Amino acid sequence: MKSSLSSKGRSAGYARDRMKTLLVSERIGCSPQMMKMLRNDLIHTVKKYITVDEKNICISVTQEPLIFHADIPVRSDKE
Amino acid sequence: MGEVIVITSGKGGVGKTTTVANIGTGLAMLDRKTAVVDTDIGLRNLDVVLGLENRIVYNLVDVVNGSCRLNQALIRDRRHPGLFLLPSAQTKDKSAVSPEQMIKLTEELKEEFDYVLLDCPAGIEQGFRNAVAGAERALVVTTPEVSAIRDADRIIGLLEADGLRNIQLIVNRLRPDMIARGDMMSVDDVTEILTADLIGTIPDDEQIVVAANQGEPLSGKNSPAEDEYRNICRRILGEDIPFMEIRQKKGVFRRLSEIFKK
C-alpha cells in the first residue's frame, strides 16, 4: 500500500494520512503500535461471545470531540 | 486598551518573524498604532527584517531590568507612523526575562498601542513560555510539511492547556503547482489535520525574500504573499475577507477543456 501511495504525484495524500494517524495517537496518548494491540485485544474479547466479521472491522478516532469508535460487523447465526 | 497577539510555530524557519514584520507593517498602514516585540533573546532578527537594525540603543532586557524606560527602547519606524519595534537583547542568558516580567511589559504596551505583536522564539522552552504569558490571541504559523504540522499541533495543545482560547492558523509557503499535482498538502488538508481556525494562507513568493533583503516589508507591487498579509491584517481588525483560492494560473488548454465541459 505504502509504495503505491508514496510515489511522486500522490505524496500529499500519504502525508495527510500519516499525520492524522500520528496526531490522533499523540492526543489520546496511545501509540500506533498500542492501537494495533488494542484492536487485537478488542476483537479477541468480542469473539469469545459472538461471531464477528473480522475483515470488515473498522476502528477510528474522531478528533472533535475525541471519540473512539469500533464498528464490528456481527455474523448472523443463520448464515 | 490594545490586544496582545503572539506569533508562534514550534518549528523554526516557517516564517514567524516575516509574519510579524508584515502584519505589523500592515496594521500600521491601516492606521493602527502597533508595537512589534522580538522576544527571541540571544537571537535578534526582527530588526533586520524591518530594516531598523542600525537604530537600536536599548532592548527588551534593558526595559525589564529597569535600565531604561519603555519609551527609550521603542524604535519608531519613520516610514510608517504608528509602527514601533522593541528589539531583543543579544545576551547569551536566555533566563534574563521571566513570564511575570513579560506580563507586566505587555500590560504597559497595551495601554499605549492598539496592537502588540510578539515574535516568539522557536521551541517550547522558557522563551516560548515568556512570549505566550501575556498574550490574548495566538497566530500559529505552519507550512504544509509534516515536520511543521506536527510541531504546530504540539504548540496548539500547549496553548490550549495554558487557557488560551483564541488560536488561529496561518499556512505559509503554499505552492499551487505542487498542490495541483498532489505533492503538497492543501490548506484544507492542514486545517483538517490540525482542527484549527484559519486566518491566512500565504503563497510561496520571491517578493518576501526581496522585501526582507531590503528591510522593507509590504513594499512590493503585485505580490500575492503581501496581498494576503494585508488580508490577514483586515481579518485581525474583524473584517470578513474571503480566503484567496490557492490555485495555479490556468493554461489555455485547461480553459478550453472547461468550455467543452459546459
Total of helices of chain A: 3
Terminal residue distance of chain A: 32 Å
Number of strands of chain A: 2
Strand content of chain A: 5-15%
Kindly estimate the percentage of residues of chain B that lie in beta strands according to DSSP: 15-25%
* Morphology call of chain A: globular
Give unreliable regions of chain B as ranges: 248-262
Q: Look at the structure and give the mean pLDDT of chain A.
A: 82
Return the structural class of chain A.
alpha+beta
Please indicate the count of domains of chain A: 1
Q: State the oligomer.
A: heterodimer
Low-confidence stretches of chain A: 1-6
Return the string of H and E elements of chain B: EHEHHHEEHEHEHEHHEHHH
Describe the structure.
The complex is a heterodimer of chains A (79) and B (262). Chain A is of the alpha+beta class and 79 residues long. Chain A contains three helices and two strands; from the N terminus they run αααββ. Helix content of chain A is 47%, strand content 13%. Mean pLDDT of chain A is 82; it is low at 1-6. Residues 248-262 of chain B have low confidence and may be disordered. Chain B has twelve helices and eight strands. In chain B, α5 (99-112) packs parallel to α6 (126-133). Chain B is of the alpha/beta class and 262 residues long. The interface between A and B is medium-sized, with 17 and 20 residues.
Q: Secondary structure elements and their pairing?
A:
The complex is a heterodimer of chains A (79) and B (262).
Chain A: H1 2-5, H2 11-27, H3 32-47, E1 58-62, E2 67-71
Antiparallel strand pairs in A: 1-2
Chain B: E1 3-8, H1 16-29, E2 34-38, H2 46-50, H3 60-65, H4 70-73, E3 75-76, E4 83-86, H5 99-112, E5 115-119, H6 126-133, E6 137-142, H7 146-161, E7 166-174, H8 176-180, H9 187-194, E8 197-203, H10 206-214, H11 224-236, H12 252-261
Parallel strand pairs in B: 1-5, 1-6, 2-4, 2-5, 6-7, 7-8
Antiparallel strand pairs in B: 3-4
Helix pairs in contact in B: 1-11, 5-6
